[in-house]
Automatic annotation (TrEMBL):
Its main location: membrane. This is Receptor ligand binding region domain-containing protein. Residues 1-17 form the signal peptide. Pfam families: ANF_receptor (PF01094). PANTHER family: IONOTROPIC GLUTAMATE RECEPTOR. Keywords: Membrane, Signal, Transmembrane, Transmembrane helix. Residues 38-347 form the Receptor ligand binding region domain. The keyword Secreted does not apply. SUPFAM superfamilies: Periplasmic binding protein-like I.
Amino acid sequence: MALLFAIIVILVTTAMSLPPVIRIGAIFTEDQKDSPSELAFKYAIYKINKDKTLLANTTLVYDIQYVPKDDSFRTSKKACKQLSRSVQGIFGPSDPLLGAHIQSICEALDVPHLEARVDFEPTFKEFSINLYPSQDHLNKAFKDLMSFLNWTRVAIIYEEDYGLFKLQDLVKSPPSSRTEMYIRQAGPGSYRQVLREVRHKEIYKLIVDTDPAHMQQFFRAILQLQMNDYRYHYMFTTFDIETFDLEDFKYNSVNMTAFRLVDLEEPKVAEVLRQMERFQPIGHAILNKTGVIQAEPALVYDSVQVFAHGLAALDRSHDLRPANLSCEKEEPWDDGLSLYNYINAVRTFYDFKLSSLLAPCRLLHYAKISLRSEFYVRNRTCQCLLKVAC
Ligand SMILES: *[C@@H]1O[C@H](CO)[C@@H](O)[C@H](O)[C@H]1NC(C)=O
Ligand SMILES: *[C@@H]1O[C@H](CO)[C@@H](O)[C@H](O)[C@H]1NC(C)=O
Ligand SMILES: *[C@@H]1O[C@H](CO)[C@@H](O)[C@H](O)[C@H]1NC(C)=O
Ligand SMILES: *[C@@H]1O[C@H](CO)[C@@H](O)[C@H](O)[C@H]1NC(C)=O
Ligand SMILES: *[C@@H]1O[C@H](CO)[C@@H](O)[C@H](O)[C@H]1NC(C)=O
Ligand SMILES: *[C@@H]1O[C@H](CO)[C@@H](O)[C@H](O)[C@H]1NC(C)=O
């Protein structure tokens, strides 16, 4: 009897603990080397390792791989290599197409995949935890805003080939049957021409889904065509509108509206950003400017938090046995599903309170809108959005 008791005690004490080292893989595209997103990832790991209250006896170790954009073959190979060295989760990449490839590998081998990317197919994906707001939620938010603002004649300018695909629900079922939509694809070479057409058609409400990297060129085109008076209202799909130079719009009364993901006014968020900025030598480079973080690094940071809280929850009731997996053999990881379920159950621990794990109403609640009139934001929370959503 005593022997049996001893064995049970040993089983219990050894079973319920995480291994001392947990390896996680991260994949960034080459242009993301030393980007705010990569630095946010490293900082998040550092912070969790330092905070001994969460994972007391476990250290997270990362394996970062860089991959060329548009090369899914090499990206898959790098992921397989990481999996063969027993990573217990893969983060990224944020590129929508590469991300989808890694997603299918993680799904085949039962490895949690943490991502923050635009997803074209809004279907449930096993083993994927995507913090990027779903396109459904976003389209709903745009529609709510359009009805709130009584928009009836709207131009949509999109840039990426998949842009229309993203917004198709908006186009197919606009907020009101009276809504008339004029849809054009444009890039830096054609912004001016397309904007001129919009002006010619006397459309004053625009939804702008252009590549954020070209935003200044888009702004310049607006200014050159003088489409910046009080009649115009632009709704931007980027979550980072505050990071752009809006100085040129300071003295005219054009309206600009955008959602953002991170509630910078929230005291807890501000505190996290302050700590981040103090973290030398890289802290300041994670932020865009003091007190402002772009959506992507914020999502990457939060996805590490979510992973760590999932691990901690699992630690309380399950064992975790790392395994070296092989893409050739396709034998799934035994403990992957439990870990995924624990991560997926994490709802409240993120520092930036990001959205897609939450219900749509929470998303909209944290998506602040700014209605600009004078310079900078004369922001007001759009009551109707909150009401419609919840
Ligand atoms: C961490 O390890 C110490 C010493 O081995 C042990 O006393 C403690 O309970 C462990 N903590 C957790 C959370 O497993
Ligand atoms: C939209 O139209 C309704 C009814 O015409 C009006 O009450 C409301 O104030 C308008 N909203 C805005 C933001 O202009
Ligand atoms: C721009 O904002 C001002 C003040 O908020 C408002 O009166 C005006 O109607 C808005 N214009 C457009 C085109 O939405
Ligand atoms: C801040 O954001 C803008 C636009 O998103 C970008 O062009 C700029 O490089 C960013 N600056 C830093 C320091 O990250
Ligand atoms: C995974 O492979 C490494 C060597 O590549 C080995 O040291 C380690 O023990 C293996 N882990 C497992 C769980 O098989
Ligand atoms: C935006 O609104 C919040 C309240 O929702 C307020 O605390 C903050 O000061 C406003 N920001 C600006 C720049 O007006």
